[in-house]
Amino acid sequence: MGAFLFYLLKSGCCLVVFYIFFKLLMSRSTFFRFNRITLLVGLLGCTLLPLIELTTTEETFLHSPLYAIHEILQSTESVILNPEQMEDPILISEKNPEINSLNWIPVTLAFIYGVGALVTLIWLSLSTCRLIQLIRTSEKKQFGNYVLVIPQQPTASFSWGKYIVISAADYSQQSEEILLHETMHLRNHHTLDLLFMQIFLLVYWFNPVVWLLKRELQEVHEFEADNGVINTGIDATKYQLLLVKKAVGTRLYSMANGFNHSKLKKRITMMLKERTNRWARLKLLLAVPVMAGALYVFAQPEVKEVPRQIQSELQQKEADDYSSLMFFFKEGGERYSKLVNGAYPPSKIKARQVHSLFVNKQNRVMFDNDVCSVDELKSTIVKNLTKSWEESKRKEYQVISFQVDRGSEIAALTTILKEVKGAFEQIRADLSITLTDKSEEALDRLFPVLLSEGATRNYGLKELSMEEKISGIVVTIHTSEGKEVMKDYTLTELKQKVTAARAKQADPESLVIGLKIEKGCKMGYVTDTKQVLRECSALKINYSTDN
Predict the structure, then answer these.
(1) For a FRET experiment, which of 85, 110, 150, 309 has its CA 20 to 30 Å from that of 470?
(2) DSSP string of 253-267?
(3) How far apart are CA 201 and CA 543, in angstroms?
(4) Is the pLDDT of residue 415 over 70?
(5) pTM (global) more than 0.85
(6) Same domain, 231 and 115
(7) Are the C-beta atoms of 338 and 94 separated by less than 8 Å?
(8) Rounded mean pLDDT of 493-505?
(9) Quick check: is 395 in a domain?
(10) Final residue of a domain: which of 269, 293, 317?
(11) Within this chain, do residues 258 and 341 fall inside the same structural domain, yes or no?
């Protein structure tokens, strides 16, 4: 349903542009039949134009908001960002059953649309039923190829199908001009045009432009019928006086052509107006660049399969230790958060966008639930993320959910994260080749760097008690009085030292903790140390790794 709603949005935009185009350039001309055809073909074109799929290598300022809307309408299942469940608040794990929720935006819009379409259908059905009832219960006479319907009650004259409805009072008085006018409607098959418009109204009932276009079409019908009457030799002045006389009446039948339907002044003006120069029809050629512009706006920014030729602008850090690598991914997540919370609505990340990366206590890797060697990891990530992204027509951001066993080693994790970083860099470098704007912001819009560091798992190394010693990490407490180094500490000792150091600081928030992580250190020790520091409100941490 989301795809259909997005189609209605695009076709609705085309209809607005077409209405403005017709109103400004064509509505005042005397090419009545030409204008009629223009309206019908234009309406049909506005429905077909959004179905044409084109691609472009450049992204315009309209692409981003359009496809942000497309993402919202297409999404049926969402994952809400929740900073409380992750150390790095980028996304919630796809395994959490509490976060999967229905995207109510397209559901609500679809419901409203359905109700509106049903109401419109009922209204049109009632109008048609009233018309049929009037024909069935009134006197009928043959009138050439048509049937005269002569109701006794006062009724504004109109035509529909093969029927011409004229009140008994009009039929007994000045009926020649009225009958001739309605005959012109039937000869030109105006009923088919109105039937076509009713179908349009059922689909685009919410779009006021469609109602305005229907009015324009009905006015063209009246102009064409009036012109046909005048061309038969009827006295124009007498006919115009008749229009003035019949300029009152109630229109109850939406699918019929009424004698006094259009604005009287405008009809008379059109009768008296000098014929438009035939070359004025060439104004319709201006529709060509308008259509081309619409196609360009709706075109999808496409990237081609090309060899890697340039380096990505992602490479901001020369160091490849564990802390700098995590900082690299943290910056990517922060840029993404600013992007979606600024000019764009909050992102809804679906489960299929999440790619799991798990490292066990033996430092073995599993990506997307398949065992993968470190040497194969980069190419596997590039393949899987690119495939998923392309299958979503380049609209769904890809996220790696990074989880490790507490028993895994920092050195192994550093190597793995290098491969992950390299995979993101390769994807974005390949994409940037075809972009005019190669800035980091443009790449973030196209393919952001998103890695979520989840909580460590307790498979290989149990959570330490407060009294067990931690090895492999050197803690340096920097205060205004100097620094204190801690090795082979317990978590209780660390907590006491940090709490005391904060109490001595004039500004407790200025306390800085340095963590030097040795190569063979277990991830569980890092996690426990970071947790204690958070409990002590020591949030300024400098990381370094023993390479």
Answers:
(1) 85
(2) -TTSEETT-S-HHHH
(3) 64
(4) yes
(5) no
(6) yes
(7) no
(8) 91
(9) yes
(10) 293
(11) no
Q: Which residues pair with 517 in a beta bridge?
A: 473, 545
Q: How far apart are the first and last CA of the chain?
A: 54
| In a shared domain, residues 255 and 390 | no
pLDDT at 290: 61
Distance of CA 317 to the CA centre of its chain: 35
**Any domain includes 460:** no
Residue 40: other Cβ atoms inside 10 A: 17
| Per-residue DSSP letter, 167 | -
Per-residue pLDDT reduced to its tens digit, 246-295: 654 444 455 555 554 446 566 666 665 666 656 555 665 665 666 666 55
Q: How many CB atoms lie within 10 A of CB 3?
A: 11
The contacts found for 189-197 with CB under 8 angstroms, 24 or more apart, are 190/159, 190/221, 190/224, 190/225, 190/257, 191/159, 191/160, 191/161, 191/255, 191/256, 191/257, 193/36, 193/40, 193/217, 193/221, 194/218, 194/254, 194/255, 194/256, 194/257, 195/255, 196/40, 196/43, 197/43
Strand partners, 258: 158
Domain extent, residue 481, equals: 469-545
Asked if the model's pLDDT at residue 547 lies above 60, the reply is no
Contact 476, 516 (CB under 8 A): yes
Is the residue at 64 inside a domain? yes
The pair of structure tokens assigned to 104 is 């109510």
Q: Which residues contact 223 (CB under 8 A, 6 or more apart)?
A: 30, 32, 262, 267, 270
Q: Based on the domain organization, do 370 and 433 belong to the same domain? A: yes
Count of beta carbons in the 10 Å neighbourhood of residue 493: 17
| pLDDT of residue 463 exceeding 50 | yes
Burial degree of 329 (CB within 10 A; 0-12, 13-18, 19+): buried
Q: Residue 85: inside a domain, yes or no?
A: no
